[in-house]
Amino acid sequence: MTTDGFLNLNKPAGMTSHDCVGRVRRLLKLKRVGHGGTLDPAVTGVLPIALGKATRLLQFLQHNKAYRGTIRFGLTTATDDLEGEIIHSRPVPELSLEQVQAALPKFLGKIEQFPPSFSAVQVGGKRLYELARKGETVEVAARKVEVFRLEILDWRPGDFPELDLSIACGAGTYIRAIARDLGAVLNTGGTLACLTRTESSGFSIEESLSFEELELQLQENKFCPILPSAVLGHLGAIVLSPEYTKRWFQGQRLPIPETPIIGPYEESSNHPPHNPIPEPPYALQVYDRDGNFLGIGQVANSETSTILSPQIVL
Predict the structure, then answer these.
(1) 154 an active-site residue?
(2) Which of 105, 221, 268, 311 has the most CB atoms in a 10 Å sphere around its CB?
(3) Helix (H) or strand (E) holding 86
(4) pTM of the entire structure?
(5) Which residue has the higher pLDDT, 54 or 127?
């Protein structure tokens, strides 16, 4: 059984992403294991895990993510979630769903947000959470992030009302910061009560495995890693001839297109391309004619032609 590929792990609460990598490493008896996209210990849901040679492919995964979370109003904490010390607590039974609905559009599209004080963002080589634990206050610049969707799932009124949201966003977006800032806009305070990541890097929670399910599959010898082709389709691909395959493994730069590009950039007389081919340089999956995944190549222009250079050779 090959162990090179990906695992769509449903991370449990109470474990860091690093803890999850360590447990997967022990279960699969692998040295090379990595994850794509850190989750806070309290957060559950999709944590992409790369196994074996696939750890070299983490940088090429899609960056968009989706979450299902609960925001509690009338409360602010040091960490912007329920894990931190309560800074302010005030019942806000007067807060209505209509007021929340009117404020949500401020958090759609390209927005600026300040990372939570307790986060993995680095300042001067130190993580913010390390500095916060020492009681140090650091000025952090706002960061541009993008939120594609904010959908209300449920509303529970009361002294400390709660809002359930479905959120789709780009890389680097902190849902805790949205909870904090939404509470500030409404003048009630707000904090993240719970959060589950439902999508990440092309993986969905519906197809994820818990540790218990992974262990059972391993006991029954049924575990099969997810192939790179299943999660890298956004890159497009190129198929090499036997001669070009040999040259690929020798690390040679190859003139293209030797064969048509397939995937999201595919074009034919009957169908337009799914997406316009980007301007070089850009990355492509590389396969041989038997369908074997050979790695990732970078397409760039030379003075006389377009060149495919080996970037990751597997």
Answers:
(1) no
(2) 311
(3) strand 86-89
(4) 0.86
(5) 54
